[in-house]
Design goal:
The complex is a heterodimer of chains A (250) and B (97). By secondary structure, chain A is mostly helical. Chain A is built from ten helices and no strands. The longest helix of chain A has 29 residues. Chain B has a domain of 62 residues: Phenylacetic acid degradation B (Ubiquitin-like (UB roll), Roll). The chains are: A mainly alpha (250), B alpha+beta (97). Chains A and B meet through helix 2 and helix 6 of A and helix 1 of B.
């Protein structure tokens, strides 16, 4: 059980850590100053939650690894984030859609996790819920502006949605780890979370006058450590310092 | 408002730090509409627990006195110190005056 709990916690953490890294790439490059700060705020929210989860994962594992060891010294195949969050920023529509799809999943997940029988996961989720509410609002508002904006912004938002939709399957993938923890009351059942995700997506896309893509081929494997080619570059960037100067602190 | 069509309008931001206190002007930002202005203000001006309520006002809606009128408007008050309530003896224990 403790191995399953470790893996599950790592999955939760890695989604946030990698998305946070992607958003941090916008720092200093945002379309306007105000959005630049908004995205950086978001990145910090995500990394705050990721840190709590990684620290907890280290405790569950019991091998003396702390948050830094888990963030900086794991290889690609040991990362268990979904492929969605590692996708490149692209244009701003891509960045917003990627966050929106994640937020629409993350909020109901965090809400459900507050009822976890695992007190630590429940406490971390309780702290994240308010942040997640704002994240959904921020990305939804932008998606509506893009979709219901100009012809060009609509086109780009629809393209981002079409491009990224294939990665949403990963968010709801079922496997033994997931099922084992649901049975123990630690992880929430993904079915009602998918229902909430669908409801948010449908509501916002309708307002944004965007078309929900048809569920076709769904890219999966992120939860098992099989990633797109993008993750390696992220880790190279993120881990360079600790790899080159082991134990460096500042 | 800006003449440049590519720039969003300017908004002035007022933050209330605590319930019961006034909203204080903290700065300005650009946003396409009031909703975006409030969200931007939240992200730009309340990151360090500065506030619990936000007002945003289109900068164009504010009428301001002209700097060149300053002498006419404000200097006449200079020699009217009797308007300050400093000539009264304060009763013992009176607060908030």
């Amino acid at each position: 059980m403790s191995n399953a709990l470790f893996q599950y916690t790592i999955r939760l953490a890695d989604d946030l850590l990698i998305l946070s890294h992607r958003l941090s790439e916008w720092c200093g490059h945002g379309p306007i100053l105000e959005e630049d700060i908004a995205l950086t705020n978001r990145a910090l929210d995500h990394i705050g939650e990721a840190r709590n989860l990684l620290t907890y994962a280290g405790q569950v594992e019991g091998k003396g690894r702390d948050e830094d060891a888990l963030a900086y010294l794991r290889n690609e195949r040991q990362y268990l984030n979904t492929k969605l969050v590692e996708q490149p920023n692209g244009d701003y529509a891509h960045t917003i859609v990627r966050s929106f799809l994640f937020d629409a999943y993350h909020l109901p997940l965090a809400e459900a996790l507050t009822k976890s029988t695992d007190a630590q996961l429940a406490a971390i989720a309780a702290k994240a819920v308010k942040e997640a509410q704002y994240h959904v609002k921020h990305s939804s508002d932008w998606l509506v502006r893009f979709g219901d904006g100009t012809e060009e912004s609509h086109r780009r938002a629809q393209k981002a949605l079409d491009d990224l939709w294939t990665f949403t399957g990963d968010l709801f993938a079922q496997d033994e780890v997931q099922q084992q923890l649901v049975k123990a009351g630690i992880a929430p059942d993904l079915t009602p979370i998918k229902t909430a995700f669908d409801a948010t997506v449908d509501k916002v896309l309708k307002e944004a006058t965007l078309k929900r893509p048809v569920d076709g081929f769904m890219a999966s494997g992120g939860r098992q450590g099989r990633h797109s080619e993008h993750l390696g570059y992220i880790l190279a960037d993120m881990q360079y310092l600790q790899r080159a100067y082991p134990g460096a602190e500042w | 408002m800006s003449d440049n069509k590519n720039n969003w309008p300017l908004w002035e931001v007022f933050i209330q730090s605590k319930r019961g206190l006034e909203h204080k002007h903290v700065g300005s930002l650009h946003a396409a509409d009031a909703q975006m202005a409030i969200e931007n203000a939240r992200d730009v001006y309340t990151r360090r627990q500065e506030g619990q309520s936000i007002w945003v006002v289109p900068a164009a809606a504010i009428s301001a006195s002209q700097p060149e009128d300053a002498a006419m408007l404000f200097d006449p008050a200079d020699d009217k110190t009797y308007r300050h309530p400093t000539f009264y003896t304060m009763p013992e224990g009176a607060k908030y005056i």
